[in-house]
C-alpha cells in the first residue's frame, strides 16, 4: 500500500490537475486508486450533505466513491475556523488518520490532496507537513511559476520533510523561462537533494475560461451572440489605447477578450472583425446598434459589466490564474501534460509500485 500526498508551495498551483493526472495514469497502469482530501476549504451542500467542492469533483473524475465525511474529514467552514481559533476542535489528525486508513484499505496507491500551500491548515494542526509525517506518506510538491519559482520554499520543505519528499513539479513555466528552469534551476535543486519529477510548460488552455463563465464571474451579462457563449478566452487585452496601436497588439494575441469602455466603437469594430472570443464593455455602457448587429453577424458575444476598465482587468488577471479545472477538454489536456512531462518511473520507484 502506497500513499502519496500532492501539495504545493501556494494555493492555485495545479494540485487538482496533478491529482487527476496521476490518478488516471495509475488506473491506466492497472493499479487500484484511493483518494481523499483531508482538509477542504470550499464547502458545498449537495443533496443535503456537506462536501468540499474540489474533492467532490476530483472523486467524480477518478470514479472513487467515498462518503463526504471520509472523502474530506475536515471541512474548514467559518464555524470550524471559529472553533479552531478557540481551541475547541481537538486533534483533527484523529479523524484524518481514520479516513485515510479507511480509504487506503485494499488500494495499491492512495492519493491525498493538499489544500492551499504545505503550511496551510497550521492553525488547526492539519497542515500538509504534519499530514505527510504522521501518515508516513511520500509527498510531491508543486511550485507554479509566477514571475519566478519559489526555490527557497522548496529548500525549506526539503529540510522539513526529508525522505518523505518524493520530488517536486515545476508547473506553468513560461516559454521564455523554460531554458533557465531546465539548465539552472532544476540542476540547482537536484544538487540539494530535491528530485525534479517534471517541468510542465505553460499551456494557455489550462487557464482558459468560457465566455458564459467569465460573464458570471465578472458580475456582467451577455447581451449578444448568446449561442456562442461557450467560446474560450485564454487571455485579455485592454482597449484603452489608440486604435492603430491596439491593432498591433491585437494581432499578436489569439483568443483574447477585449476589455474596453462601451463608448469605444472604433475598438469594438476592430475586435469584432479580428475574431476576438468576446468583448467586455465596462462602465455599464451599451454599444450602439451597429456594433450589436455586427456582433450577431460575426457570432462574437458582448459582455456588459458595471465596473471600470482597470478593476475588470485586475479581476480578469485573477480569474485566469485561479479558474478551476472543470471542463472535460481541460481535464484531458491536463492529463496529457502530466503524462508528457512527468518522470513516472522515478515516482513509481519512490512509491514502491514498480512491478
Automatic annotation (TrEMBL):
Enumerate the Pfam families for this protein: AAA_26 (PF13500), DRTGG (PF07085)
The DRTGG domain covers which part of the protein?
Answer: 213-318
> For this UniProt entry, which segments traverse the membrane?
none
Superkingdom is Bacteria
Q: How does it assemble?
A: Homohexamer.
**What protein does this entry describe?**
DRTGG domain protein
The organism is: Solidesulfovibrio carbinoliphilus subsp. oakridgensis
